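anyone seen this seq b4? input:
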Amino acid sequence: MNKKSWLIVGLSLAMAATLGVGLSACGGETHTHNYDTWDYNATQHWKYCDEHGTDKSNIDETTKANHDFKDGKCECGATEGQEIPDADLDTREFWVTGTGAGDLANASWTELKPNFKLTKQPHKDADGFTLYTIQMKIFAGGDKFKIRQDERDENNALKWTKGTFFGLTEIKNNDGTFIDMGNEGDIGVAKGKDGIYKFTVHTKPAPAPWADNYVSWELIESVAAPTTTEDMYIVGTIKTQKNSQWPDFTDVKKNCIHMTFDGTDTWYADVELTIGDQFKVYNILNKQYYPNVANLTTGETWLYRVSWKVGQDDVKVEHLHKYTMQGYDGENHWMKCPKDDVRDESTVEAHDFTSGDTCKCGFQKEADPDWKINEDGTLNEYTGDYVNLKIPANLEVFPDYGKLFGMGENNKYEFAMCEQKNLAKVQSVTVDPKNEHFKVENNTVLSKDGTVLYMYFPYSTETSVTFENVTEIANSAFIFNATVTTINFPKVVTIGRLAFYNTKLESATLPMIETISEEAFYQSTVKTIDLSSAKTIGNNAFCKSAIETLDLENIEKLGTGAFSNCKQLTEVVIGANIKELPTSAGVFGFCSLLKTVTVKAVTPPATAALFPQCPLLTDIYVPAESVDAYKALAKWSLYADKIKAIPAEAASAQEVALPASKKED
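predicted toks r here
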């Protein structure tokens, strides 16, 4: 290009700048920008070239200026007081946590309080930062705080790990008034400019580097600092304070807990205390202890506020809530204190299922609205028609049948009227695939690992049931079943309440059974069952059953009425380990065919009565050396004429069966 051509281009550029136009290459051709369209935010305006639709990349920097409102309106079109939110503002939230004597006296290190949330401005500043502001009264010498992002873990609890505090790489305007100790430290007043300050967080949305972020401050009003003639510390042996000691042994200021003055009449500090801690409040200026008598202690490990009011001797130690546990119901969730379930009302919010069927709090949307599930995974209420039971994903504890089938609690006297009617309606039982606690297998609801049997389907027509791996049969599992006559559970150790209530069961194989709960076989037709390994049999466990003979070789405890009204029972053997008989009457009461009872316990177990209304009872066999003791003991004495020594051949057989070590004894 010759000198003449360069001169023409130079003049063209100069004229474009003067006239408010610009040149650029568009599609290989030179394009002249026409800066004739206004754009603005809440504080500034500028012109841009709008020839190609809404492309705002061609901004005339020379037109960027603050609004000049005349009669409430700027020449760019903005109106005074108008909020113009930027579309790509940072979406995070920031809070102040800390402690102090000014406004920070009401703050906390362990929770986010609503009045310490920074306010997000609706527009960015000229450098593209989103602005968050808060105004606080700050005093030198004790006020400390952090500005932190509200960041939560998978249980919706606040994270308190390295890096979660807002990365303060710079405090602008810093004349030494404020000190910054980095991500792991606190912001504090370094020297005596006490007052009301406006703090502003300047941040760009993640994943912008932390180095982009900073905090600026502005002194709004100077205020007088609170005055006090005390300087208080918590001293003693406190496990959570590594260097905490009594003043006689170490440097109080260095090793003990400095308390905060609230600006009026109280010194306080929040501290984790454990059982075994001993402590007092100590005024380092006059070397006075409070209280001036016994050391303070606490009955349990927890977070406490220790406070002392000027002029008094007493020290107050109050439990503080730690909102670290997730709570929820069917509609809302919140954070709560695990000590007493008190919830932080500022955290209550509705469940959010926009990302799926599970809220961030862990609550799962109920696929079946008929199941109302409590936050601990238990059943609150079932309102369905019972025909097709589908156990929902969020049920964690299998309900008692009385609760599930409309009674509220298990009560055998009401089952026939209520539960049996609803149970008969069931045509299918399934488990939501997302449920992590239960599964369906062989006409049965089992625990996920297959060791607990919760519900045998009432509509099954099987007559014989075998489960090799089940160790526990839960409450009411087979209740009212009219088809199963034989069960084989080689590993079952425990049978729950009412498990076989009013069933047609005839034979049960339970070689490892130890505990049978109350009313487990109440009014069943079971005739043959080996109970030689059983240790505990509950109240009315076999009441009104059809059992014919009993071998209770290892029994330790029998409940009231355990075998009462067993009209087919003829013979009972109770082993030497019996430790407890009920103090109320009738373990074997009303057994009209009972003839022979053998009790191998050398020491007669005390009881109220064992055999009322047993008209055919003729023989009660006990160890030979204990015959007189049995006859002399109250209640047993009622059967003195029937008490006899165990026949010699039976005793010999028992001796042969004993291990060698026992024989030597």
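The chain is about 10% helix and 30% strand. Helices lie at 3-19, 252-255, 401-404, 412-415, 419-423, 627-632, 648-657, 660-664. kinda curious what u guys think
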